[in-house]
Prior knowledge:
By secondary structure, the protein is mostly beta strands.
Amino acid sequence: xxxxxxxxxxxxxxxxxxxxxxxxxxxxxxxxxxxxxxxxxxxxxxxxxxxxxxxxxxxxxxxxxxxxxxxxxxxxxxxxxxxxxxxxxxxxxxxxxxxxxxxxxxxxxxxxxxxxxxxxxxxxxxxxxxxxxxxxxxxxxxxxxxxxxxxxxxxxxxxxxxxxxxxxxxxxxxxxxxxxxxxxxxxxxxxxxxxxxxxxxxxxxxxxxxxxxxxxxxxxxxxxxxxxxxxxxxxxxxxxxxxxxxxxxxxxxxxxxxxxxxxxxxxxxxxxxxxxxxx
Length: 279
């Protein structure tokens, strides 16, 4: 992927940058692997808004991604590299020897025509291959890691993400997360060798409000611009500070920099070293 700029014909286009989609080889998704995505506009099954500022956006299809990589010991060939509107990483269409077709999260450096393999045994440590993390040598980059064997990849799936394997300790593997956190995972959990594709996505600048609306993100209003009845930061004449010791949410709870992780969370015992922010 590359980042492109356009002629500054307006203030929005002057600051905006775009994906050039140079690495895309197929524009239409595989029909057997897509389902319609229904818009929820941030509402739960009771119709109540649980996530604010959601709604609208362009129509999308959900690409069914194979996070389990459970076609064990059956070679697959990358047939195309495609854009997925639901994620930052590229996805690849894999055609297996038995005729099955599946989408995977594309690792960086994998090309059309390359062969990949998934196995529960030790296989070649090659970009795109999936195997239990206990067979990965220390210092190797991996992605799409399971937290429980057989449950499918849960961590390190975003564009440009990578995890370093640091070693094996008993029944667990020690890994270093993209955030800097060092934690333990079961050594039988599957992982994919390599870094997630499309690392340049973080450099894209939206530039204008219209692009945010196309992504399904509605406007966000500052609390200081509201009335006191609507937000703890509201009220006052003119532009001024919030007048509180600490920032608050719309419902009066502490915000910005507050630790949100539960002290009694079960997975805390698997964290060897916290990330720098420690939230």
